[in-house]
Amino acid sequence: QVQLVESGGGLVQPGGSLKLSCAASGSIVAINVMGWFRQAPGKQRELVATITTAGNTNYLDSVKGRFTISSDNAKRAVYLQMHNLKPEDTAVYYCNARVFLNGGTAYNPYWGQGTQVTVSS
After folding, report:
1. Which residues of the chain have pLDDT under 70?
2. How many whole angstroms separate alpha carbon 103 and alpha carbon 97?
3. How many C-beta atoms surround the C-beta of residue 68 within 10 A?
4. How far apart are CA 27 and CA 86, in angstroms?
5. Fewer CB near the terminus (10 Å): N or C of the chain?
């Protein structure tokens, strides 16, 4: 019903930059929040950043000043620009969207398949 397709992960050296992209498609009436989560090996999934359709943003403390989330509501897309990457940013990054489906009764969360980000020299 809903597909979230991510791109942009990869291997980067410490201090480098990457930009993640995610686009939603399917029987979507509306999206009210999109965001990025990440999960490192042996750790719980954590929220990295979210953005509402009104443009309100929220960030994990450890990424403030380094990561910027943005969106294109018309394209149902969300982006995560990451600068000054650190080894501790290494994780699988997941796109998330709260979606109201055609015929639905509420907003529900959907997840992308994940994209690996590795920060290493």
Report:
1. none
2. 17
3. 17
4. 38
5. C
Taking alpha carbons only, the member of 24, 115, 35, 25 closest to residue 77 is 24
| Type of residue found at 55 | G
Residues whose CB falls within 8 Å of the CB of residue 104, separated by 6 or more in sequence, listed in order = 29
pLDDT in tens, 23-44: 999 999 999 999 999 999 999 9
* CB-count burial class (<10 Å; 0-12, 13-18, 19+) for 118: middle
Q: What is the 3-state secondary structure (H, E, C) of the chain?
A: CEEEEEECCEEECCCCCEEEEEEEEECEEEEEEEEEEEECCCCCCEEEEEEECCCCEEECHHHCCCEEEEEEHHHCEEEEEECCCCHHHCEEEEEEEEEEECCCCCEEEEECCCEEEEECC
Side chain identity, residue 67? F
